[in-house]
Amino acid sequence: MPQASPESSVMPLNPLDDDDVPIEDSTPLGAIVEGVEESHSPSPEDDERNREYLIRRTALGDNPTQKEMDAVVAYGLEQHRYNFPHLY
Questions:
Q1: What is the pTM of this model?
Q2: Per-residue b/e over 25-55, b at no fewer than 16 CB within 10 Å?
Q3: What span, in angstroms and rounded, lies between the C-alpha atoms of 1 and 81?
């Protein structure tokens, strides 16, 4: 008496595996990817409101004095209050 293989009695996980039914989607992949990219906030480097602070911070150089660092921090905090008043 021939034995049936165990694979033949197992149902497929995805019923579409046995059928040649094309899956139709009206949204092209490019439109989905573009939509995701636009939903994110701009990075701090790309945000114009942050540009002057980044310039000042970069201009500090390798060995800034505490006074120079404090001035840049104070400027950054001032700009943050100006740009995001709802947080204060």
A1: 0.48
A2: eeeeeeeeeeeeeeeeeeeeeeeeebeebee
A3: 84
Summarize pLDDT for 40-84 with one digit per residue, the tens: 666 766 778 888 888 999 999 899 999 999 999 999 999 999 988
Contacts of residue 79, defined as CB under 8 A and 6 or more positions apart, other chains included, come to 49, 50, 52, 53
Task: Give pLDDT, residue 50.
Answer: 84
Q: What's the token pair of residue 40?
A: 């994110």
Q: How far apart are CA 53 and CA 55, in angstroms?
A: 5
